[in-house]
Amino acid sequence: MLAPALTNALTIDVEDYFQVSAFAPYIRRDEWDARECRVERNVERILAMLAQRDTKATFFTLGWVAERYPQLVKRIVEGGHELASHGYGHERASDLSQEAFAQDVGRAKKLLEDIAGREVLGYRAPSFSIGTGNLWAFDQLARAGYTYSSSIYPIAHDHYGMPDSPRFAYRVASGLLEVPVTTLRMMSRNLPSSGGGYFRLLPYGISRWMIRRINTVDRESAIFYFHPWEIDSEQPRVAGIDAKTRFRHYVNIPRMEAKLQSLLADFRWGRMDQIFLARDAAKA
Prior knowledge:
The chain is of the alpha/beta class. The chain has one domain: Glycoside hydrolase/deacetylase (TIM Barrel, Alpha-Beta Barrel), CATH 3.20.20.370. It is built from ten helices and eleven strands. It has helices at residues 39-52, 63-68, 70-78, 98-116, 136-144, 196-201, 204-218, 243-250, 253-266, 272-283, and strands at 7-14, 58-61, 82-85, 122-123, 148-149, 170-171, 177-178, 183-186, 189-192, 223-226, 268-270. The strands form three sheets. Strands 1, 2, 3, 10 and 11 form a five-stranded parallel β-sheet that branches. It has a four-stranded mixed β-sheet with strand order 4-5-7-6, sandwiched between helices. Strands 8-9 form a two-stranded antiparallel ribbon. Helix 4 (98-116) runs parallel beside helix 5. It is globular. The two termini are 28 Å apart. The mean pLDDT is 93.
């Protein structure tokens, strides 16, 4: 008898194209307000796509975006989705002092909760920037009132990653639940299988096979993530960036929405809190 299909977690990191960490050397923060913002229209497209398939998701939302588009935050919540925190200003946790990090995550949580009128439980660090050098971030998140984090990517990468960390949800010393971004274990290595640029780069069939293997072999729910700008073929092109950054950011964006539609059709999807917090509570 086949085991029932698992529900995977669909997550969206709500930030605009000019806020990605790879563009930080090219776009100053004091330029952000002068840039054309496209995040609202792109999130609306995502909300419509999810409503069409009656799918719920978790939106890890920047406080900077929420402050400027409070009605968008309300529409996320009204759609039955989980509102979670991506920090306030998309600053990498590894670049901040403990005090600055505490201020950032506390500010974002309060802002999101004030707009939405409900508690924010989850946090994801920009660029998965919690690792061996700043595990103190978990203590700060717990003090700020967060219940879980999805901030560690157990792979080796030039911008982030903690390849030796557990691949699936675990409690950290502060009591916080860390739910790492999903990887596939093959040939003594963790392979990225969670979305982002890898999903745009690889043929869809490979990503589908990876998620199915995690569901059927590991018997674990996978986490998939993407950004609103990844479905936006008409976003302004950032001038002067290096070739590697250009490739990573723009590769296969015109194909992304169709691939997402296939993903939504091929798997069951839900919210982080309703999958992982509920499962953790059942174990207690």
